[in-house]
Amino acid sequence: MIQPVKIDPYGFREYDARWVYNKDINSEGIVNLGKGLGTQILKHTNKKNPRVVVGHDYRSYSKEIKSALKKGLVSTGCFVEDVGLALSPMVYFAQFNLESDAVAMVTASHNENGWTGVKMGIKKGLTHAPEEMKELKDITINEKFTTGKGQAKDIKNFQEIYKQNLIQKNKINKKIKAVVACGNGTAGIFAPDILRGIGCEVIELDCNLDWSFPKYNPNPEDLEMLHEISKAVKQNNADIGFGFDGDGDRVGVIDNKGNEIFSDKIGLLIARNLSSEHQNSKFIVDVKSTGLYSNDEVLNKNKCKAIYWKTGHSHIKRKVFNEKALAGFEKSGHFFFNRPLGYGYDDGINSAIQVCHLLDKQNKKMHEIIGELPITYQSPTMAPFCKDEEKYKVVDDIVQKIEKIKSNEEKIDGQKIKEILTVNGVRFSFEDGSWGLIRASSNKPSLVVVTESPKSDDRKKRIFEFIDNLLQETGKIGDYDQKL
Questions:
Q1: Domain 377-474 classified CATH 3.40.630.10?
Q2: Which has the closest alpha carbon to 101: 79, 74, 86, 82?
């Protein structure tokens, strides 16, 4: 007997789809998602049999989910090309390499075990943004499906094609000793091989695949993962430490002293490094990123401009594309390199390679290079629980409160709010360059809170306390995943 379709509408997020498997969506729901996506691809490509590359991450149920998704896609007339076990950037690369019409990657990235999801895209190098997700949700939930005669085939050995593409054009001269940590996620069968291939000496940390994630989730924003990398860097006297997320599109970096470098600052170092060869370029950074971009002396000298934009790999990718920016950087570790450096999508391993080029070019250790940036005190990304159906309203209310504080010229910790940016939640900046951010998470039932101060660690903490008090007053906030 065919089970009834189960599919929670809240799983359609801003720029991908994510559910707890069997609780929020079942395999028939996934089939319908495939039918919805196939219908959408047919509409936007005007082809009877568009070619769709699919891949899956290493979770116990990902193959099963991919099989259901393929069934739905084929039923609409799509020709599915399955590259097998993959990273998201490998699937994005396959769209260029195989010249296919669309992509669908089965992954829940760094989300806890039990979660599943799909990252998808039609236009090369881009993934679905809110408009496409809204259309997909409407087609899928209301079952407005096209029917056709499709087919599916496996693409053999594509992992090696992807690896060699990155290795061949990125050889380095210096012998860089790198700790490569993958949190037992899918990047474990890619990152060590590629970094060895370009010339690094690699020390592997949790690179064997284990979908139960026995130590910690593969998430380079997770302090537990970063602490493990730090220990390994110090024990092995390594030059650098890299931590990759579950589907390999993000990277976290630890310097040779074992200190975590937030990805937005790595992005700034890379932007500086690129700006001398690519003057007058634009760089896109997300609203969680350091305030240092806005008035950086090296970027200014090379007539480069930084634009703050909405957090989310799909938003930044699209902004990089639309602005013809050279690169984009997210604090979460998504980096996007546009032509001539890349195809515009986020690839954690390519990002790590760019850091290796930075070290290869300069006769300095990583801690010395980062030491050239002005010091700021940054919080980690903190996520207090907030229901999906309430989180956007909570943020809207907070925006109004902060706008009122600014217009009344009230002081927070002795400082007036100088500027408010509301492209994504609210980022409010003070006269001394300190700032705080509150926004709704795009892929989990939570908010996102970040603070930074160029003045002191204390000041950073007091801005967090101000934000936390505002949030607690709403009565809609649960526990934080991590806190100052």
A1: no
A2: 79
Q: Which two tokens stand for residue 42?
A: 């047919």
Query: What are 366's two structure tokens?
Result: 């990583």
Rounded distance between C-alpha atoms, residue 61 and residue 49, angstroms? 28
417-426 as b/e: b if 16+ CB within 10 A: beebeebbbb
Specify the CATH number of the domain 9-156. 3.40.120.10
CATH superfamily assigned to domain 161-260: Alpha-D-Glucose-1,6-Bisphosphate, subunit A, domain 3 (3.40.120.10)
What are the tens digits of pLDDT across the range 388-400? 999 999 999 999 9
**Cα–Cα distance between 180 and 242 in angstroms, integer?**
5
The 10s digit of each residue's pLDDT in 30-82 is 999 999 999 999 999 999 999 999 999 999 999 999 999 999 999 999 999 99
202 neighbors 172 (Cβ within 8 angstroms): no
Judging by beta carbons within 10 Å of its beta carbon (0-12, 13-18, 19+), is residue 61 exposed, middle or buried?
A: middle
Helix (H) or strand (E) holding 117: strand 115-121
Q: What is the CATH number of domain 262-370?
A: 3.40.120.10
Task: Tell me: cis bond preceding 340? Omega within 30 of 0 counts.
Answer: yes
The yes-or-no answer to whether 9-156 and 262-370 have a common fold is: yes
Cα 389 to Cα 145, 235, 476, distances in angstroms: 27, 46, 11
Which residues have C-beta within 8 Å of that of residue 78, sequence separation ≥ 6?
A: 38, 41, 42, 49, 50, 51, 52, 102, 148, 150
- 2 pLDDT higher than 80: no
Using left for φ > 0, alpha for ψ between -120 and 50, and beta otherwise, residue 458 falls in alpha
Closest CA to 87 of 317, 448, 351: 351
For 129-162, letters b (16+ CB in 10 Å) and e give: bbebbebbbebbeeeebbebebebeebeebbebb
Residue with tokens 């030491």: 371
Phi and psi torsions of 438, nearest 5°: -135, 125
Asked whether 400 and 407 are in contact (CB, 8 A), the reply is no
pTM: 0.86
Residue 353 backbone zone (phi > 0: left; psi -120 to 50: alpha; other: beta): alpha
Give the residue extent of every domain in the chain: 9-156, 161-260, 262-370, 377-474
Instruction: Using DSSP, state whether 476 is helix, strand or coil.
Output: coil
**What are the two backbone dihedrals, phi and then psi, of residue 417, each rounded to the nearest 5 degrees?**
-75, 125
End-to-end CA distance of the chain: 52
